[in-house]
TrEMBL record:
SUPFAM superfamilies cross-referenced by the UniProt entry: Concanavalin A-like lectins/glucanases (SSF49899), Protein kinase-like (PK-like) (SSF56112)
Source organism, top-level taxon: Eukaryota
EC number per UniProt: 2.7.11.1
Catalyzed reactions: L-seryl-[protein] + ATP = O-phospho-L-seryl-[protein] + ADP + H(+); L-threonyl-[protein] + ATP = O-phospho-L-threonyl-[protein] + ADP + H(+)
TM annotation in the entry: 287-312
GO molecular-function terms, A-Z: ATP binding; carbohydrate binding; transmembrane receptor protein serine/threonine kinase activity
Name of protein: non-specific serine/threonine protein kinase
Keywords: ATP-binding, Glycoprotein, Kinase, Lectin, Membrane, Nucleotide-binding, Receptor, Serine/threonine-protein kinase, Signal, Transferase, Transmembrane, Transmembrane helix
Protein kinase domain location: 346-631
Membrane-topology descriptor: Single-pass type I membrane protein
Subcellular location: Membrane
Annotated signal peptide: 1-18
Organism: Medicago truncatula
GO biological process, one term: defense response to oomycetes
Amino acid sequence: MSSKLLALFFMFVTLVVASEDNNISFTYNGFKSSHLYLDGVAELTSNGLLRLTNDSRQQKGHAFYPNPIVFNNGSSSNVSSFSTTFVFAIKSEFPNLSGHGIVFVLSPTKGLPNSLPSQYLGLFNESNNGNNNNHVFGLELDTIMNTEFDDINDNHVGIDINGLKSEKSASAGYYDIDGNEFKNLSLFSGLPMQIWLEYDGVKKKIDVTLAPINVVKPKQPLLSLNKDLSSILNTSMYVGFSSSTGSILTSHYILGWSFKVNGQAQNLVISELPKLPTLDEKHDSKAIMIIGLPLISLCLILMVAIAIFHFIKRKKMFSELHEDWEKDYGTQRFKYKDLYFATKGFKEKELLGTGGFGRVYKGVMPISKLEVAVKRVSHESRQGMKEFVAEIVSIGRLRHRNLVPLLGYCRRKGELLLVYDYMQNGSLDKYLHTKQQRFTLNWSQRFRIIKGVASGLFYLHEEWEQVVIHRDIKASNVLLDGEMNGRLGDFGLSRLYDHGTDPQTTHVVGTLGYLAPEHTRTGKATTSSDVYSFGAFLLEVVCGKRPIEQVRECESESIILVDYVYDCWKRGEIIEAKDVNLGVDYVVEEVELVLKLGLLCSHCEALARPSMRQVLRYLERDLQLPDLSFLSLSSMGLSYGQCENFQDFGMSYPSSSMDRPFSHTSSIAESLLSGGR
Ligand SMILES: *[C@@H]1O[C@H](CO)[C@@H](O)[C@H](O)[C@H]1NC(C)=O
Ligand SMILES: *[C@@H]1O[C@H](CO)[C@@H](O)[C@H](O)[C@H]1NC(C)=O
Ligand SMILES: *[C@@H]1O[C@H](CO)[C@@H](O)[C@H](O)[C@H]1NC(C)=O
Ligand SMILES: *[C@@H]1O[C@H](CO)[C@@H](O)[C@H](O)[C@H]1NC(C)=O
Ligand SMILES: *[C@@H]1O[C@H](CO)[C@@H](O)[C@H](O)[C@H]1NC(C)=O
Ligand SMILES: *[C@@H]1O[C@H](CO)[C@@H](O)[C@H](O)[C@H]1NC(C)=O
Ligand SMILES: *[C@@H]1O[C@H](CO)[C@@H](O)[C@H](O)[C@H]1NC(C)=O
Ligand SMILES: *[C@@H]1O[C@H](CO)[C@@H](O)[C@H](O)[C@H]1NC(C)=O
């Protein structure tokens, strides 16, 4: 037989012998579903902590392994070796003071009846303290200095045999890994600490080692005592813990416990131990007061601030101007927010055109799905705004099939938004002045548009409850609806720029070529000045030319449409003035009528012009056009020279005769037509 086999054989024998020994061991990494014997105030918490005392005064608590453990070695009376380790924590209401401590105890009885709390640690009473018949072994973790028991300080570890006067004790702490430096520990710091107790039954020696939970077991024990426990321990003993409180509220916790007879107690798995309550309830509420509340309020303030910021941003983005006098215009007032969304945020893609007063966007109202055109007019001054809005609102009530319905308005800082019905076919301008074939209008279409616009303007001047002066009649302000009906748009807008301005410095709003001479001079718009513009419009529609058309190459030279038509008329060939795009499909009499009417309306003197009522009748041929030959009475040619009546004319408007912004145009018109007075 080899020596190896022999060794194996002996190993087998020792194993058998060992197994015959009482080698009871148990390990609790937390006490969930353990069956410990508890008395006093001891309890298991829901997360598996063993709490020996709760927050109450003058209480004791015991926890014992439920079965007795045999401590003698086989048949001999010698006490078996044993080893235990446990993790504990002591939390006190004060940082520098604690209720009493914890004792690891070997007792002949389960529980310690008649023992006292407080300094007796739940182990003894006055009469049996120190009595050798107790057969009690204890390892105390004492946090109060009791001079009657000769305690060394208020933070010590001691070995107690049958009484509270320790056989040996040491101030709490541990030797670091090199064994050189001793580090103090506070037992009631509330931090978990691990302690090891080992009894060597052969050497009769007790070793006690303490360390913080995150430190491996130091090599050098805190406390060693040579003591034969054979006379002290009974054959069968109970192992467990005792703890007590005095006048200071203290909680004593055991987080994990391992025990073994005849061998090394199994290591605890620190990561599996239950968590201590982070702060006791009092501290919890205090912490909430100190840390939580400010934090929560800060968060709340932040959230409110963010909400307010967004609210203000949104509010600012969609802010409008409201004034008391607008209260009655509720139904005609649009929300900026709605217009914003209708036009997709005034996207370039939705832009219909850019007019003299602002940009026009197409939009679809969010709820009604109504197609609208939104005109943004920038307007800084609030002067005259009240009157203007009043006019807008009353204009909004105008209903005529040849007017573009004004649905309402919206007012913001520096901006006015006007909401119109959307006209499918856009402005007449496009049809007259583009070379594209698909946009060309035939004569009957043009004539219908002319009559429509005339009827719309007549409605504004005479048929409605108050006189409305359009002020800016021109092809680009005539819009075509789905049935190619001409509809006047943009009425009254120029008024916005008239209000409150000094007549001396009036800047006339309107469009060059459509402005009546007296309008240019005085800045005053009248129904007659509208008729003058309408005349220019008539010529524009028939001739397909703008009232003043720049000749491309030399910019100083421009064709004045009125001059041109007059010229043709004088030659007896007025029909020649018509748009070449008209082709041959036209009614000569109608074309002639409109051209002549255009000349008549272009008379430089307001009184010589027909009213819209008359214009309508001429167009309907209810009334014969007057003889235009008087126009030719003028001795003036079509030159740029001065009209002989010009001085007289100018004298009647002395204040402004010298600052005519469009003197060039108006003098042409004057020179052409003023002779007929
Ligand atoms: C303890 O005893 C049991 C059975 O009595 C045995 O299976 C086990 O191996 C023993 N353990 C030690 C460490 O001796
Ligand atoms: C402590 O435990 C005792 C007994 O279980 C109980 O009566 C008492 O209310 C507890 N005190 C606190 C503060 O939990
Ligand atoms: C008890 O231990 C002592 C040594 O400490 C030894 O001499 C003695 O024989 C032991 N007794 C028994 C019964 O094993
Ligand atoms: C404990 O600390 C408090 C202040 O935190 C102090 O008032 C008190 O005197 C201290 N007690 C002891 C025994 O040091
Ligand atoms: C412990 O042992 C002693 C003497 O050996 C005996 O008097 C006492 O009754 C025992 N205690 C218990 C609780 O068995
Ligand atoms: C002290 O405890 C012992 C053992 O339990 C008991 O016999 C005795 O009566 C107790 N004495 C007092 C004063 O409570
Ligand atoms: C450690 O504790 C002892 C006993 O209380 C004290 O004398 C010593 O100064 C302490 N050492 C340190 C470093 O705090
Ligand atoms: C117990 O008995 C075993 C085997 O007999 C021996 O190895 C061990 O040292 C004994 N322990 C004590 C404390 O006497």
